[in-house]
Design goal:
By secondary structure, the protein is mainly α. The protein has one domain: Four Helix Bundle (Hemerythrin (Met), subunit A). A hairpin with a 2-residue loop joins strand 1 and strand 2. Helix 2 packs antiparallel against helix 3, helix 3 packs antiparallel against helix 4 and helix 3 crosses helix 6. The radius of gyration is 15 Å and the shape is globular.
Length: about 150
């Protein structure tokens, strides 16, 4: 079963990272100043169904649509591309997955989405899915003596 990335979890992550970085520059976007309902929709959309069938059945599908929607729907005034990257990495992590990509690859993927037109949405989602599928790996199990 694929776990959801909740809004409170994403809020906690962005706040925690901002505190650790201890910077006044906007490295991590402030998601408390968002347009009402937009981010919530971006996080819920990967789990939508129609007629009892998941619209985005695989983790790659869910990750792709989340990434695409956060960038295209602009739930924040600033930092949507950075938030999209953080969101998909967090989503994958809670599902014990990770993307083996560098920041240049992520930046290139955001540029593809930003520069795409709405009529190419299906092709862009397919491209994102294939890239995510090829770069996604299982996180190693961490055993603790606690």
């Amino acid at each position: 079963m694929i776990k959801r990335l909740s809004l409170p979890a994403l809020e906690y992550l962005t706040t925690s990272i901002a505190k650790v970085l201890n910077t006044t520059s906007e490295v991590i976007p402030n998601i408390y100043n968002r347009f009402p309902g937009k981010l919530e929709h971006c996080l819920a959309a990967p789990f939508m169904s129609f007629g009892g069938k998941n619209l985005y059945p695989t983790i790659e599908d869910k990750c792709s649509i989340m990434f695409y929607l956060i960038i295209k729907n602009h739930p924040l005034e600033n930092g949507n591309k950075r938030l999209a990257c953080l969101a998909i990495l967090s989503f994958l992590m809670i599902n014990k997955k990770w993307l083996k990509v560098n920041h240049y690859d992520l930046k290139a993927l955001t540029a593809v989405v930003v520069n795409s037109t709405p009529h190419l949405k299906d092709q862009i989602l397919y491209l994102l899915k294939m890239v995510i599928k090829s770069k996604m790996h299982n996180l190693p199990s961490i055993k603790s003596n606690l």
